[in-house]
């Protein structure tokens, strides 16, 4: 049975949208139809809006109700809350897929390919790449976790830090405020580093044990007890990379989550070698870790701080404007009226 899916699509003008629609594909045997209730708005959506031609359906943090099931779907039941994310498909049979690293499968299909994305009233998706939303998480709270949440959780897992580790979170924004919560729940001693003194109280409320202003480190880092096992960088600003690497313990790791807007230059390479430091890029996660992130978040009551916008062209434009002006606290979410 064919039906129409209403969408918000990009137009040539930056940060602008219009209403459109398309005929939904027939459900395959593993597909589900999700009626979308909420979709997070991410800076990545803004980047694709500017990079790609118009008439693109954006949004990669959607959560909604399962309404239809393909013939081979066993993972979901009608009426359950489900979400999907950046990874849409993989081959399911290469060494990466078989080792749980399906996100880097060479044949992966990822957002925004296919135009079957989150700024819409529904989507037909492969159930094997959709995720059950645990009890305790609403659609609007789960939506930002589908990208921002799994991005920082994946980095935390990849870093190998233990519950007795000392970690720093650089940046208290859309990624950083979630990283603080995940790291605190992980058991770590957590330090928030930010240029914004007005965010100190929020950082502490999100789980930081202490706050440091990066505008004036003073003599921080000169004492052995100051140093970190892992630093998670969530900002896109160009940092004094050597200074931050100097804050690491021997065998420490600097996890690069935010995308720098200029080249990374490390001058003191002998320190990196002699102290066996690691500078690691990290981005998103595969299916197993995404589901585990949702379960961990529900177990520890980890939720994003969100600003709500109507699920309209005007709402999407307003959310983009808040993100572009760096005023969003801390994730924007488009929400459908019930």
How would you summarize the topology of this molecule?
Layout: E1 4-10, E2 17-23, E3 31-41, H1 43-51, E4 62-69, E5 81-84, E6 87-89, H2 95-98, E7 109-110, E8 122-126, E9 130-132, H3 139-142, H4 148-159, E10 166-170, H5 176-186, E11 189-194, H6 200-206, E12 210-213, E13 228-233, H7 241-245, E14 248-256, H8 269-274, E15 278-281, H9 287-299, E16 306-310, H10 313-324, E17 331-335
Helix pairs in contact: 4-5, 4-9
Q: Summarize this, please?
A:
Helices cover 25% and strands 28% of the residues. The chain is of the alpha/beta class and 338 residues long. Strands 3, 4, 5, 8, 9, 16 and 17 form a 7-stranded mixed β-sheet that branches. A 6-stranded parallel β-sheet has the order 12-11-10-13-14-15, covered by helices on one side. A two-stranded antiparallel sheet has the order 1-2.
Question: What does it look like?
Answer:
The protein has helices spanning 43-51, 95-98, 139-142, 148-159, 176-186, 200-206, 241-245, 269-274, 287-299, 313-324; strands at residues 4-10, 17-23, 31-41, 62-69, 81-84, 87-89, 109-110, 122-126, 130-132, 166-170, 189-194, 210-213, 228-233, 248-256, 278-281, 306-310, 331-335. The strands form 4 sheets. Strands 3, 4, 5, 8, 9, 16 and 17 form a 7-stranded mixed beta sheet that branches. The protein is α/β, with parallel strands linked by helices and 338 residues long. The model has no long low-confidence stretch (mean pLDDT 96). The two termini are 25 Å apart. It is globular, with a radius of gyration of 20 Å.
Biggest beta sheet summary:
7 strands, mixed
Give the proportion of residues in helices. 10-25%
Structural class of the secondary elements?
A: alpha/beta
Indicate the radius of gyration in whole angstroms.
20 Å
Strand content: 25-35%
Q: What is the typical, i.e. mean, pLDDT?
A: 96
Q: Which descriptor suits the 3D outline?
A: globular
């Amino acid at each position: 049975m064919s039906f129409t899916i209403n969408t918000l699509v990009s137009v040539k003008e930056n940060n602008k949208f219009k209403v459109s629609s398309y005929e939904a594909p027939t459900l395959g045997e593993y597909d589900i139809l999700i009626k979308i209730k909420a979709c997070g708005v991410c800076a990545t959506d803004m980047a694709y809006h500017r990079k790609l031609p118009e008439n693109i359906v954006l949004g990669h943090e959607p959560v909604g109700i399962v309404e239809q099931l393909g013939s081979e779907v066993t993972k979901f039941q009608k009426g359950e809350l489900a979400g999907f994310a950046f990874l849409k498909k993989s081959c399911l049979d290469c060494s990466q897929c078989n080792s749980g690293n399906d996100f880097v499968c060479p044949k992966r299909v990822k957002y925004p390919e296919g135009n079957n994305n989150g700024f819409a009233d529904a989507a037909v998706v492969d159930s094997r790449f959709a995720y059950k939303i645990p009890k305790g998480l609403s659609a609007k709270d789960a939506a930002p976790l589908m990208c921002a949440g799994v991005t920082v959780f994946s980095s935390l897992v990849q870093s190998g830090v233990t519950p007795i580790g000392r970690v720093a979170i650089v940046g208290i924004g859309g990624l950083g405020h979630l990283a603080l919560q995940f790291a605190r729940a992980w058991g770590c001693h957590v330090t928030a580093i930010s240029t914004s003194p007005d965010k100190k109280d929020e950082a502490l409320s999100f789980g930081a044990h202490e706050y440091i202003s990066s505008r004036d480190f003073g003599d921080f880092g000169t004492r052995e007890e100051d140093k970190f096992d892992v630093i998670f960088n969530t900002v896109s600003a160009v940092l004094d990379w050597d200074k931050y690497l100097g804050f690491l313990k021997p065998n420490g790791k600097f996890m690069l989550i935010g995308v720098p807007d200029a080249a990374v230059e490390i001058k003191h390479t002998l320190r990196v070698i002699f102290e066996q430091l690691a500078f690691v890029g990290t981005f998103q996660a595969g299916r197993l870790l995404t589901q585990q992130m949702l379960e961990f978040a529900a177990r520890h009551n980890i939720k994003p701080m969100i600003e709500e916008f109507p699920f309209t062209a005007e709402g999407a434009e307003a959310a983009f404007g808040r993100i572009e002006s760096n005023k969003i606290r801390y994730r924007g979410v488009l929400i459908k009226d019930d």
